[in-house]
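User: Assemble these into one structure.

Assistant: Restating your components, then the assembled model:
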Amino acid sequence: MLHTVNKSSFERNSLQSCLNTIDDTSVILLIEDGVISAAKNANSSMLADLATQGRVYALQGDVDARGISSKVADNIKLVDYAGFVDLVVEHGTAVSWV
Amino acid sequence: MLHTVNKSSFERNSLQSCLNTIDDTSVILLIEDGVISAAKNANSSMLADLATQGRVYALQGDVDARGISSKVADNIKLVDYAGFVDLVVEHGTAVSWV
Amino acid sequence: MKFSIQINEGPYQHQASDSAYQFAKAAIAAGHEIFRVFFYHDGVNNATRFTMPPQDDRNVVNQWAELDIKNADGEPELVVCIAAALRRGMLDESEAKKNGIEGNNIHPAFRISGLGQLIEAGIQSDRLVVFGD
Amino acid sequence: MKFSIQINEGPYQHQASDSAYQFAKAAIAAGHEIFRVFFYHDGVNNATRFTMPPQDDRNVVNQWAELDIKNADGEPELVVCIAAALRRGMLDESEAKKNGIEGNNIHPAFRISGLGQLIEAGIQSDRLVVFGD
Amino acid sequence: MAIKKFMYLNRKASYGTAYAIESLEVVLIAAAFDQDVSLAFIDDGVYQIVEGQNTDGIGMKNFSKTFHALGDYDINKLYVSAESLEERGLTADDLMPLVYEDEDDDWEEKPSVKIVSNAELTKIMSEQDVCLSF
Amino acid sequence: MAIKKFMYLNRKASYGTAYAIESLEVVLIAAAFDQDVSLAFIDDGVYQIVEGQNTDGIGMKNFSKTFHALGDYDINKLYVSAESLEERGLTADDLMPLVYEDEDDDWEEKPSVKIVSNAELTKIMSEQDVCLSF
């Protein structure tokens, strides 16, 4: 499955809820304000394990818009919208943690 | 000052942000989904100190709507909309943590 | 006391407009004055005369209209931010004509005006209360 | 592959509609088919033909219209939920007439229909992606 | 056409936003299609099915009773996160007694609500073909 | 009429929602009224004034440069929560260098942004007459 998270983990509980129920093969894509959770910060340990496994992506355009492209945490992979489409194709059911 | 918080502390960080910057004389009114934070639960310790000082209110109508009127934490005072108006009159500047 | 209210969200999606309406009604019942209600962000959508809610539900737009909040000159003090309104597709007759659009959707109990009206409400009122997301 | 998209929020207030548009454009560019875009909740507000954004900003409604998503019968597959639309003041000509309201505001690139169209999109498509608050 | 598994993901309380009521409206329509339907109540979504909701004080429609109709439409897989309930100081007794009549078991009345751990929910979600989020 | 103290409370990042851009639009209008204006950037609101925003990839308007105009309108009290910055791994160097020319000090260019502790912010908020929240 592909889980998309579009809110900052500082503001909302959606990333935490996603992490509570994600299975061993699914991946996470951070979009919109969700990319704030991709930056190195006090909340970034939430994602670190999954990122090490290559299972965390962030949308480049949203990262750039928020001025945090130099701060993206290790092992988080950046994709553009074409990459977003590919992730949806590859990972089956899409779950949005809106 | 009167601080209104309208979101659940499980979903958002607005109650925590309010508590981070509230001064010694201001009061908090929980409205809408904010009343979820008025119920006895894992997050209710956030408000306990202020409630003991008589500085936490919750809107009765919103508490009833969410079916949690029997669960309101100790020392939180219930008000109706007329009471909301009175709180705004009594406490000066109103700050909404929307 | 003189109150003003800012509403940041539209009808039916968020409780903000309902809460603000209940607050305004209670304030009026307690003898206070509502100087102005300012609709900003998606709040501008509260002013649509096209709303058709289900028969068993409240009509958020009409509730506001029935409060009939006007100033001494008889103008509505349910004020819709013009900048926020135009991008979201809320138009009165004059804006529609100016922009060459056929039709308009602002309820006559509301009027469109600039953001200065929000600042003025803050200056003129004893209290300004914000209802939002 | 066959995609459908659900959009839960209106234009300009949330990024949801912008993100969904960029996603749809990229999917089409990659050779995929957009079976249907379903506008629900405040998402129905994306269908207004009254929108007048500032000249230096994108026009969210027109962007969708220009994607020109239609089915084999030539009908728009930008579908607006009728129940969500009516309460929020989004009307096409037929609904306006039926309800005795003068005027309408649905852009011709969109059509109003029932919630069954969302379920059908889920059944007929290989993937359904939700964009929301 | 093969039957698909649809999950309706409910994470928000009623009344504060429209997501709860408009999610329920979709689910009722979904019953007319011959698909496999599950509802998940996670986070503040669990408040949607708390017993004893009364909206008289806020002027909004109390639609909570409509959840009782789901059983009549053969929608009887309502999964509630045990962890979400517990965090909120709620138990099974706080929830509406939603039931359905099991046609495969002599129309015996059975509970529609199943309280499941996040681990169980993870497994259920993994099996879905379509997830609609509200 | 006495001058009132207006605070604009910004708690959300730009682009994800309209609150940031539409808050800035109010602030620019506010400059025309002769009031005492402060802006507070708390929580994810601090991202509004991070340097180097580029919206080319999302098709939305980059309005971040407009913050530079505030100084010209005598709006020069931008309070940023130190705790909010730190939690997010940000420092003063990550913020746009927003300045104003101080007419009381021979038009010397001075920084508009002040990084303050939550305790200081509490005090500043306590002094306000009107708080507009976005």
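DSSP finds four helices and five strands in chain B.
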